[in-house]
Amino acid sequence: KGGQRSKRGILLDHDDDARGDLHNFQGPRKTLHDYFIDLSGKRASAREEALSTILKALTLNIEQKFVELNFVTLVYQCLHSIKKGSPTEMKQAAHIIGLLSMITTSVEKVHEAYEDVLTALSQGGLKPKLKTLEILGCLTVVTFFGASNSDETESVMKLLWDLINPGTDSSDRFPSMSHQIERKDSPAVLTAMISAWSFLLSTIDGWRLSHKNWQG
Fold first, then answer.
1. Domain Interferon-related developmental regulator N-terminal, which positions (predicted)?
2. Are 144 and 107 in contact (CB under 8 A)?
3. For each of the chain's 216 residues, which pLDDT tens digit applies?
């Protein structure tokens, strides 16, 4: 866990008094908490505005206290937007989950996010959305910060490998994930998956790699 904690520190803001209000944005004076509440609203436009504002706030100010207090619910709401929301919601939500994983100092929270994202992306209902670059980026970032050991990292590498090279032996472990990416019409996604796989490989010490999984 020491290694994970060192990862946590690379993106922390030195301003521990980060506040939830958005003084730098024009328009009605609303706090981050107000936009957080809007995520559960029924109007798609309100959810998109809330996601956009939260994304800007996390990018510009790294709202540490807001993240720590609302991490679990934010991940849940963002996963809901990925599953049920518009393409705009889905992309913004995926980006937010990645940022949350980088900002939080809690190893337990980010590991839970890793498990939740992996579980969600293993469901058949998200098959078409696997071609979205933001989703692949989200999975890669959450794995980097949230996987607690090399086996968990390799489980995502296998998932990606099954998409890159359908029909491999590990496809039985993720039956709903195999044969989803068509190379002929997704060159950008294929490139992103290969890059993600290579990046995750670089995070594993060679002696910890299960070589039997990558033979042949």
1. 28-215
2. no
3. 555 555 554 454 444 444 455 455 555 578 889 999 999 988 999 999 999 999 999 999 878 999 999 999 999 999 999 988 898 999 999 999 999 999 999 999 999 999 999 988 877 656 556 668 899 999 999 999 999 999 999 989 988 888 787 765 544 444 444 444 445 547 888 888 899 999 999 988 755 555 555 554
Instruction: Enter the pTM of the model.
Output: 0.76
- What's the 3-state SS for 156-210? HHHHHHHHHCCCCHHHHHCCCCCCCCCHHHCHHHHHHHHHHHHHHHHCCCHHHCC
Distances (CA, A) of 160 to 1, 26, 118, 164: 25, 41, 11, 6
Beta-bridge mates of residue 31: 21
Domain boundaries, the chain: 1-127, 149-216
Q: What CA–CA distance (Å, rounded) separates 103 from 207? A: 29
Report helix, strand and coil shares of the chain as percent, to nearest 5: 70, 0, 30
Integer Cα distance of 167 and 42 in angstroms: 41
Residues making up the chain, counted from first to last? 216
| Token pair belonging to 155 | 């489980």
